[in-house]
Specification:
10 helices, about 290 residues, mainly alpha, about 75% helix, globular, transmembrane helix, transmembrane
Length: about 290
């Protein structure tokens, strides 16, 4: 078992360092910009009938789909950030999940634009705008709630030995590597399916379902090294937050934003309760 944990650390740490390099982040940003512009160009070419038939059938004719593409690229990066955050702490990983949910709601707001003509005209009343307002407002509430949630993080002295702490973090790194493998395998499979069928696939719905199981596994792993009731309750509560996020993604308009706000509110209340009721009492704010 120790060899597996050592291997996980040996593989994870260089990958994490490579991902966090400024050069890597700049390269990803440039790739996102390039793909967005290529998407716009492809849509315009399709509108003018200049694309070959196999490509034309997969390319939309509304420029607003390029916005959906842009948010999809940003969300893919955020999901990888989430996976690399897992070994840090469960609370930070949950915070990253809320960041992704807020971006998904904003993306959903922009997705409504495909129902409008170019340029935008509102001739049938404000009805078509209401889903945009709901998703945007939900994203804003989650953004504010995330700021409050982040300020509630506290840093507590670990009672574990150096060896136990290493094994705990290494186990989470192993889980993160497994999630990375699932992320890429699901992404490739759904990408190929989308190309074959011409329909987008619910990638983030599937990935959040996987996160529910990974959070439960994290609860069990944490109970191995942090067997106290308060820690187990807090980590289980964070798994409930992930469940609420997953339900928000599967819910119809208006309910998705409401469940998202409920999830972040629950996480805030859970963190407040843990900070003040845990046996070691209030601690300094986590950096």
């Amino acid at each position: 078992m120790y060899r597996i944990l050592d291997w996980a650390t040996y593989v994870f740490d260089p990958l994490h360092a490579l991902w966090e390099k400024p050069r890597t982040q700049r390269g990803i940003a440039l790739a996102q910009i390039s793909l967005f512009l290529l998407g716009l160009a492809g849509i315009e070419l399709n509108r003018r009938g200049l694309l070959p038939e196999p490509v034309a059938t997969l390319t939309p004719t509304s420029h607003y789909y390029a916005i959906k593409l842009a948010f999809g690229l940003v969300l893919l990066k955020e999901v990888i950030d989430l996976v690399f955050t897992l070994p840090c702490s469960m609370s930070r990983a949950v915070g990253k999940q809320f960041e992704i949910l807020a971006l998904i709601l904003l993306r959903n707001a922009f997705k409504e634009l495909v129902h409008f003509q170019e340029p935008i005209e509102i001739a049938d009343g404000i009805g078509p705008v209401l889903p945009i307002i709901a998703d945007a407002a939900g994203a804003l509430f989650i953004f504010v709630g995330l700021g409050i949630y982040s300020r509630l993080h506290v840093k507590r002295k670990s009672s574990k030995s150096a060896g136990a702490l290493y094994r705990f973090v290494a186990t989470k790194k192993l889980l993160a590597l497994v999630l990375l493998g699932i992320f890429f395998s699901v992404g490739v499979d759904m990408g190929l399916t989308a190309m074959q069928t011409g329909h987008s696939q619910p990638f983030f719905d599937v990935f959040y379902t996987v996160l529910i199981f990974s959070d439960i596994l994290l609860v069990l792993i944490s109970s191995l090294y942090l067997p106290s009731f308060h820690s187990t309750f807090r980590n289980s509560g964070f798994a409930v937050s992930t469940l609420l996020i997953r339900m928000a993604l599967a819910s119809p308009r208006y309910w998705d934003a409401l469940l998202g706000v409920t999830a972040v509110t629950f996480a805030i209340c859970l963190t407040l309760a843990y900070n003040y009721l845990a046996p070691d009492g209030p601690a300094g704010r986590e950096e």
